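Input/output pair, single chain:
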Amino acid sequence: LRNPEDAESVIPHLDIAEVEIALGDIREGLAVELGEVAHQPLVDAVGQYATLGEICDTLRGVYGTYAEPEI
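Output:
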């Protein structure tokens, strides 16, 4: 959404339970694909209005975060 006013049109369509299901599908899809990009669950989560933060948290939960090795 490019305009904050557009968010008001999304809120009535936002279903938190569906977002949680979509985020669970990302976790399951990534676990099954063993590191391959499972793009359809990501697309579905966006379609359910999952936020970028929610999607990134889910990806961090599956893959973890990078820590640069000490030299």
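The CA atoms of residues 12 and 42 lie 22 Å apart. The chain has a mean pLDDT of 79.
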